[in-house]
Amino acid sequence: MKKTFRAATFSAFALTAMAIHTPAFADGIVGETDDSLSLLQTSTQTEAQRVTDGIYKATGFGNSFLVVTDKGNVIIDTSLDLYAPGHKKLLNAVNTDEPKYIIITHGHGDHTGGIPIWRGKNTEVIAQKESVEFLHYQKRLSGFFGRQNAAQFNISDRNVNGENPGNYDATIPATILFDKKYSLDMGNMTFDIRSAPAETYDALTVWISERKAVFVGDLLYTSFPNIYTLRGTKPRWALDYVNALNEVLKLDAEILLGSHGEPIIGAEEIKKVLTLHRDAILYVHDATVAGMNEGKDVHTLIEEIELPEELYIKQPYGTVAWSVRGIYDGYIGWFDGNPTTMLGIKPAQANSDLIEMAGGADMVSKRAQLLAEKGNADQALALTDSILSIDPRHKGALTVRLAILTKMHEESGNYNEKGWLGYGIRDAEKALAGQ
Length: 435
Ligand SMILES: [Zn+2]
Hints:
single chain; alpha/beta; elongated
């Protein structure tokens, strides 16, 4: 059985199986979480964190930064609308001047949420030019993404009314859009802003040479990156991450400020972390591409590809398995070469005869229960899928499914996985309640 970040869940129903998977615990995959990666991150901050002379941080999902210069204030990222008022209060305690500029590292809601409360009459908002399409794209699919976010984060579904706003309906906050580079002379500090596509096409980095400080947005955080995100996204190109990390490495920064988590201080440490992330991402990318060229299918590669020990990075947010799939599907799309897939056969069509031949849904659900008890939770779950594809309210299948997902949820050390397991649990509960 492959050792995965989720390997511990195999022990859900069979404690004896735990011995086999002890290495997964030893790897520190399970149980090592970092609140900076949780949407529900709470901050006990009573005053803004002074990172260095003129640079202050308010902490949350994500962070907001205030840079106080001779020529006025600059805000870098503004957090979620939920956190922004608290951040503004903390940073205003340092300096109340209306910001001259707001720089948005990319167009995700946890970076743009506070723009309305920070922006003054004369504030310019700076973003990379791809942010226009990126914001339209998110708005275009707001019915879809609203539902996905509500599912993953278990939040009230603000946009789950099937809204279909059209192709170009987003509000674009940026007043200054640039392509490759933009420079701000703020007297005692220069802001060297560069396009650095990775998590999104509009991602940017900000370098202040006078403080040897670089702001990297979501290019780096304390997990293997989300090269694919489960709530759905346009492809995130692994080689973009590699290039962007290489560009940051060239700076020889002494302070690295991500929009999630704590600052990394010291040129040596920064170099070490950037190099590790770059090499790990490149390793996963190259192994996936090599496998594709050898003719291996995506499932084989998900099972085969693991980070070597020297490139090990915890996976409480992104995972290697999802990244392999993201890279594979990103490059070639959905078709796997199987004519059945090409014809779009529905799971119910494929499963109904098999379930009947196996003695019916009740028999198959008993088998799923048995598999779960033996510790083979994944296979048991797949059986419940087959049953539910033809009978979505099957009580036996739903009961087994609920037990498996609940146990997995308890044991998961990955925020995104936990989110979707939680959604699966609520879904099964709803279906059961509807009996
Ligand atoms: Zn973010």
